[in-house]
Specification:
By secondary structure, the protein is of the alpha+beta class. The chain is built from two helices and four strands; from the N terminus they run H-H-E-E-E-E. The protein has a four-stranded antiparallel β-sheet with strand order 1-2-3-4, covered by helices on one side.
Length: about 90
């Protein structure tokens, strides 16, 4: 019985911790993320390896990692508000 109670408490703690971690964060609607991924692939054709929403300089961006036909990994940052590639600095 103690193992079940301990597991239940651990699960509940993890659930509330997980929800609290995302409670105040902003995100992007799925359609904006999908559009950003499409813009990234249009600019750099290839297979999607990873897509992530990040905050840079106070703005949300979508970072898309693409593997091109030659196997080269490319990181493309998209401004979802403009649906445009952010030039590398």
């Amino acid at each position: 019985m103690k193992k079940i109670t301990g597991a239940a408490i651990f699960t509940a703690t993890m659930f509330f911790s997980f929800n609290s971690a995302f409670a105040g964060n902003e995100g992007l609607p799925a359609d904006q993320v999908i559009s950003a991924i499409q813009a990234a692939v249009a600019a750099n054709p290839g297979n999607i390896h990873e897509a992530e929403v990040e905050r840079e300089q106070g703005k949300l961006i979508v970072e898309v990692k693409i593997i091109d036909a030659n196997g080269k990994k490319i990181k493309v940052k998209i401004d979802p508000a403009k649906n445009a590639v952010i030039p590398n600095k």
